[in-house]
Specification:
The complex is a heterodimer.
Chain A: E1 6-9, H1 13-26, E2 29-35, H2 42-46, E3 49-54, H3 65-75, E4 79-81, H4 91-99, E5 103-104, H5 109-116, H6 118-127, H7 146-156, E6 160-168, E7 171-176, H8 182-197, E8 202-206, E9 212-220, E10 226-228, E11 232-238, E12 241-247, H9 254-270, E13 275-283, E14 289-295, H10 302-309, H11 313-321, H12 330-334, E15 339-346, E16 348-349, E17 355-356, E18 359-360, E19 363-365, E20 372-376, E21 383-384, E22 391-399, H13 402-415, E23 417-419, H14 425-432, H15 435-439, H16 446-454, H17 464-480, H18 482-489, H19 497-513
Parallel strand pairs in A: 1-2, 1-4, 2-3, 4-5
Antiparallel strand pairs in A: 6-7, 6-8, 9-10, 9-11, 9-13, 11-12, 12-15, 13-14, 15-22, 16-17, 18-21, 19-23, 20-22
Chain B: E1 2-7, E2 10-19, E3 22-27, E4 30-40, E5 43-48, E6 52-60, E7 67-71, E8 74-80, E9 100-103, E10 108-113, E11 120-121, E12 126-132, E13 135-140, E14 145-150, E15 157-158, E16 163-167
Classes of the chains: A alpha+beta, B mainly beta.
Chain lengths: ~525, ~170
């Protein structure tokens, strides 16, 4: 079978670049799509062809199923890779690709639909004999009396979470510590979920105290084989968003690994899952684990798994979509070679409450050398647009063991130079030096707790010697390039032409997008 | 040539004179020999006192005119010759008196205004939530005070630099 000679990548930024790389290595022709503000983006420059799909706002471009299918047909592509985010977990998109006679590089729409509903996914897990966090089996009906909700809540026990059935990213989620706050929390979660996902359904779930987030990567082929990989730990989260991922986990013994990976595989088999997916678990302090949810797509953190197994997951996604068999040694996937850590580098200002820091990248020099991988979609001269997720790259370090991987990541962070925008590099420099991080003493709320205690102190405070050098450099810059700085100097008021131009641009883009 | 460079609220007096192939640079009276070579439009390679080798990259913030100086990979925010005076009152650390004007750091949509006119706020208390780049971002008061003016309401789109509220 020689299908999939030309693949349309229905995504942008670093993941589009990542998929283009896999295509190149397989001799597949990669086709890019782009919104207005991505005309010059790296993924457009690296692809064989690129199709404009609309204005910058996601719902007018990267979320437009019709425009994407149209581009795929025009390009002559025979397959579509959704990447992650945007339409990657949208069963209507997967079905539209299939209906257009193209191959969707991912699971069947039916599997996406089943696992996309949190309550349906919990039911599937329970049926497969995998424990789920205690909670209500079905969504709460919109007209259910408060007294009945209170009864269900009492049976689950406090503290508990009110969660959106269609949820993700912490939206439509409320923690309730006390029965008195329950009905207000249910109302708030319903309204937030309705606004964010177009689905106001919520359910109740016990809130574990200080759990760790452990997940299992899977590949399933079209011939009934499902293979689990060594676990990833993603407990370092800020406001429910992963920021550091690693594999293997310090908290997982060989026996626990065997139990979690076989539980994950049985959930996937129960829903006839194919292609790449991930089962997420919460690991309680007492060593018990519970099914949390399934992500029916490639994960942002897939590189750490690739680094310790030597496999290319995106290449396998394409091979599985071609109908090839997973002829891999299952034991190899569960025996990590060394340790890998990923830091998500965001265009955010960590010293200003992690506010987004869009704008033009003036300079970019990424780390290299032994054991370092930087999966990026950014280049100098490119703008980080305000419309999309502000992740600019995934920095991954591999070494023989965890302490060496941390040292290598610290070395790489010291080489990472980005000017023109702010990034989370200083935050990671601080985090990796924390004794708790180095000892693996953390859980899913660890980071939010320590950040609160820091109360906004800068993550990297320059030494007096560094400040002296900065002062010397600033003065020398004025001496060596007086004209450049003079132009800057006259141009620093809010009503100056430069600032005005920048803000007019931001306004034109911003109002359309939001 | 004399310059004033402000770093972290501290004013450093820098004097630069040509000396041989390089420069004699004094910072607050302490003089060093500096060999400076330009690498590209944004980068200088410095050899200080002949052996202390550092690469320095510079970028000017188009909104507030501050110079972001990267010494190696360590960013230092510097202001040359007292430029960027207008923006200082929006700044947390530097501002100690006068009204605090909270501005939008990026274009976005106001999703929540968490305070009312006349409210007392504590330092670092979240006051406005602006959605941008798929995230809800809490903007905080830089120090305690009373909310004097509110210039936005929920659902409003704002530009970068737009005045959101004033805290006295």
């Amino acid at each position: 079978m020689c299908r999939l000679k030309k693949i349309l990548i229905a995504n942008r930024g670093e993941i589009a670049v990542r998929i283009i790389r896999a295509c190149r290595e397989l001799g597949v022709s990669p086709i890019a799509v782009y919104s207005e503000c991505d005309r010059t983006a790296l993924h457009v420059r690296l692809a064989d062809q690129a199709y404009a799909i609309g204005p910058s706002a996601p719902r007018e471009s990267y979320l437009r199923i019709d425009a994407l299918i149209d581009a795929a047909k025009k390009s002559g592509a025979d397959g579509v890779h959704p990447g992650y985010g945007f339409l990657a977990e949208n069963e209507d998109f997967a079905a539209a690709v299939r209906d257009a006679g193209l191959t969707f590089i991912g699971p069947a729409p039916e599997a996406i639909e089943t696992m996309g509903s949190k309550t349906a996914a919990r039911t599937a897990a329970r049926r497969a004999g995998v424990p789920v966090v205690p909670g209500t089996e079905d969504p709460l009906a919109p007209d259910v009396p408060d007294a009945d909700i209170a009864k269900a809540a009492a049976a689950i026990g406090y503290p508990l979470l009110v969660k959106a059935v269609a949820g993700g990213g912490g939206k439509g989620m409320r923690t309730v510590a006390d029965a008195a706050d329950l009905s207000a929390a249910v109302r708030a979660a319903r309204s937030e979920a309705g606004a964010a996902f177009g689905d106001a359904a919520v359910y109740l779930e016990r809130r574990l105290t200080r759990p760790r987030h452990i997940e299992v990567q899977l590949l399933g082929d079209a011939h009934g084989t499902v293979l689990p990989f060594v676990e990833r730990e993603c407990s370092i989260q800020r406001r429910h968003q992963k920021v550091v991922e690693e594999t293997p986990s310090l908290a997982v013994s060989p026996a626990l690994r065997a139990a979690m990976t076989s539980a994950a595989a049985s959930v996937a088999k129960a829903v006839g899952y194919t292609n790449a997916g991930t089962i997420e678990f919460l690991l309680d302090e007492d060593g018990r684990f519970y099914f949390l949810e399934m992500n029916t797509r490639l994960q942002v953190e897939h590189p750490v798994t690739e680094m310790v197994t030597g496999l290319d997951l995106v290449r396998w996604q394409i091979r599985i979509a071609r109908g090839e068999r997973l002829d891999l040694d299952p034991d190899q996937l569960l025996r990590p070679n060394g340790h890998a850590i990923e830091c998500r580098i965001y265009a955010e200002d960590p010293d200003n409450n992690f506010l987004p820091s869009p704008g033009r990248i003036q300079q970019l020099r990424v780390p290299a050398g032994p054991g370092i991988r930087d999966d990026s979609g950014a280049t100098a001269g490119l703008d980080v647009p305000i419309f999309y997720d502000p992740m600019i790259s995934k920095l991954v370090a591999w070494a023989e063991d965890r302490p060496l991987a941390i040292a290598r990541m610290q070395r790489a962070l010291g080489e990472y130079l980005v000017t023109g925008i702010k990034t989370t590099v200083p935050f990671f420099t601080w985090l990796l030096a924390q004794p708790d991080f180095q000892a693996g003493r953390f859980h899913t709320t660890y980071l939010d707790e320590v950040l609160k205690l820091r109360n906004g102190r800068p993550f990297v405070e320059p030494t007096p010697a560094i400040e002296e050098l900065a002062a010397i450099a600033a003065a020398l810059e004025a001496v060596l390039s007086p004209s450049a700085l003079a132009a800057d100097a006259s141009d620093v008021r809010p009503d100056s032409p430069g600032a005005r131009l920048w803000r007019a641009q931001a306004r034109a883009e911003g109002l359309r997008g939001l | 040539m004399q310059y004033e460079v402000e770093i972290a609220g501290r004013l450093l007096h820098v004097t630069v004179t040509r000396a041989g192939d390089g420069f004699a640079v004094s910072v607050d009276g302490r003089t060093r020999q500096v060999d400076a070579a330009r690498i590209d439009a944004h980068t200088l390679s410095l050899l200080v006192d002949t052996v202390w080798s550092k690469e320095v990259s510079m970028a000017t913030d188009p909104v507030n005119g501050q110079l972001a100086v990267h010494v190696g990979a360590t960013p230092v925010i510097a202001t040359l010759n007292g430029r960027r005076r207008w923006g200082r009152k929006d700044e947390g650390a530097g501002a100690v008196s006068g009204p605090q004007r909270l501005v939008a750091p990026m274009p976005g949509k106001v999703v929540r205004v968490l305070v009312k006119s006349g409210d007392q706020v504590a330092a670092r208390q979240p006051v406005v939530v602006v959605e941008a780049m798929k995230m809800e971002n809490e903007l905080r008061a830089s120090r305690e005070g009373t909310v004097a003016e509110i210039h936005v309401r929920e659902g409003m789109s704002v530009d970068a630099g737009a005045l959101l509220l004033v805290i006295q």
